[in-house]
Amino acid sequence: MEPILEIRNLTKEFKDFKLNNINLKMDKGYVMGFIGPNGAGKSTTIKLILNLLKRDSGSVKVLGLDNIKDENKIKDKIGFILDENYYYDELNINEIKKIISSYYTKWDDNTFNKYIKDFNLPRNKKIKNLSKGMKMKFSLAIALSHDAELLIMDEPTSGLDPIVRNELLEILYEVIQDENKGVFFSTHITSDLDKIADYITFIKDGEIVFSEAKDDIIENYGLIKGSNDLLNNEVRKEFIGLKESKFGFEGLIKDKYKIKKLFNDDVIVERPSLEEIMLYFTRRSINV
C-alpha cells in the first residue's frame, strides 16, 4: 500500500537553524502525532510538506505524489489546519465558503452545511469576530467538506478550552474510522495525542529522535525512581535523562525490561506519559 505521507532526507537550512535529513512514513488509516519542543522544526516541516517553503534537498510525497510537481493535485486531496487564521477577517463564513469551495473538485455543500450546523457556527458573523475555537471549527469544516484524504494540523488545539479541545478530538476520531484517510497532528499538547494518536514522531533541534507506534513507546519506555546510591557512571549511561534531588532520582530509560538486570527490585518502575518522555529527551539532566 502506498504511504499517505512519505518524507525522505528532507533538509532546510536557515541562518540559525537547520532541519536536518528528516525521514518519516505514515500509512492510511492512522493518526501520527508530531511532537517536539518549541523551535524544534515542527512548523517548518509542515510548511515544507505544503510547499510553503522551498526545501534544500530531499523529497516529500503525499498520496504517492511529489509535493512540488503535483502540488495542485495534492492540495485538492488534503485539508490543512494551521495555528494561525489565514482567512479574510472582514468576510463572513458564507462569503469565505463561496471563495474556497470553487478550488476543490469534490466540494460538498451538504457536508459543509452539516458541520456548520453541528459546530453551531454563525454564518453571517465576520471571521475577525469569531472566537479561536470557532475559527478552528470553521477550518475543520472546510477541510472535511471536500473529502480530504489527509488532514495536516499544526497546533490545532493550542489556546482552546478543554471542552472545545475534546470536541475536536472526537471529530478527528470519527474521521479516522475511514481507513483511507489519515491525520498528521503537530502539537505540544501531548495529552491530546495520548487519546487519539497511533504513531508518534518526536523532533528535536531539527532532527527526528524517534518515529514509532505509540503503544510500543508507552510499553517499552520506563520511568524509574530510586535512591541516589544506586547510581554510578555505568548506570547513568542507560538513562535518556535523569532528575536528581536529595530525596532520590527519577529517570527515563528506553527499555524498562533492562531494569531487573540493573537494579533487581530496588526501584519503582512506572509507565511514562508522552509529556514526560519529551521532557527527558529535551532536558537530559535535571538537578533540584
TrEMBL record:
What residues does the ABC transporter domain cover? 5-230
Query: Is Isomerase a UniProt keyword of this protein?
Result: no
Is the keyword Nucleotide-binding in the record? yes
UniProt-listed CDD domains: ABC_DR_subfamily_A
Please provide an example of a Pfam family that matches this protein in its UniProt record.
ABC_tran
Gene3D superfamilies recorded:
P-loop containing nucleotide triphosphate hydrolases
* A molecular-function term among this protein's GO annotations: ATP hydrolysis activity
Cite the entry's keywords alphabetically.
Answer: ATP-binding, Nucleotide-binding, Transport
The name under which this protein is listed is ABC transporter ATP-binding protein
- The species is Anaeromonas frigoriresistens
> Which classification does the entry list for the species?
Bacteria, Bacillati, Bacillota, Tissierellia, Tissierellales
